[in-house]
């Protein structure tokens, strides 16, 4: 009896911990960080960005910022007035929707001259969301949310592990 309970416990722990390996964290520019004179197109090439992944922009506070913009603003290196810059020096953006995403530095001519601009394509994930509220999340330019606390995110693998644990518990009763 104790071994069955241990099996159920381990299945539940594995289901909870598996989400850690599903989402990736990408430090933009790797060791170089977010700075002028870096080729962010080359950096992004070959990387696979998925819903749930995080982008981390590291830079000295006050030297740069990060703006989430649309494709036209990206091409023209312009910062729309309604876009609030991220300025912490360690900005983390969770990719919450698929599609094209564009980021620029809005300080001085860093985008135009320093080529501080990043364009990526975010792919769907095999995850699904269980929401306690079916209302859509507030829209943020670029389609990302700094934090998503409006639902429980569960991968298909996690769901299957929890389902297996429930079946085992039913047979134990």
From TrEMBL:
Any one GO molecular-function label of the UniProt entry: electron transfer activity
Per UniProt, the keywords (alphabetical) are: Copper, Disulfide bond, Electron transport, Glycoprotein, Membrane, Metal-binding, Signal, Transmembrane, Transmembrane helix, Transport
Annotated membrane-spanning segments are 154-172
One Gene Ontology BP term is: response to symbiotic fungus
Q: Where does the record place the Phytocyanin domain?
A: 24-124
Under the heading CDD domains, the entry gives: Phytocyanin
The signal peptide stretch is 1-23
Entry's localization field: Membrane
Q: Name the domain of life.
A: Eukaryota
One Pfam entry name: Cu_bind_like
Q: Does the keyword Transferase apply?
A: no
Name the chain's protein.
Phytocyanin domain-containing protein
């Amino acid at each position: 009896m104790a071994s069955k309970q241990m099996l159920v416990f381990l299945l539940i722990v594995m289901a909870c911990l598996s989400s850690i390996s599903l989402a990736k964290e990408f430090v933009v520019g790797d060791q170089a960080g977010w700075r002028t004179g870096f080729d962010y197109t080359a950096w992004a090439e070959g990387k696979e960005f998925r819903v749930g992944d995080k982008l981390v922009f590291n830079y000295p506070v006050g030297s740069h910022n990060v703006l989430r913009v649309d494709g036209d603003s990206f091409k023209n290196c312009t910062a729309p007035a309604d876009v609030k810059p991220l300025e912490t020096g360690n900005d983390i953006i969770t990719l919450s929707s698929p599609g094209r995403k564009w980021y620029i530095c809005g300080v001085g001519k860093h985008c135009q001259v320093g080529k501080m601009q990043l364009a990526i394509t975010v792919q769907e994930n095999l995850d699904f969301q269980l929401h306690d509220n079916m209302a859509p999340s507030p829209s943020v330019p670029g389609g990302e949310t700094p934090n998503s606390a409006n639902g429980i995110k569960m991968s298909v693998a996690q769901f299957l592990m929890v389902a297996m644990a429930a079946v085992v518990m039913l047979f134990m009763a």
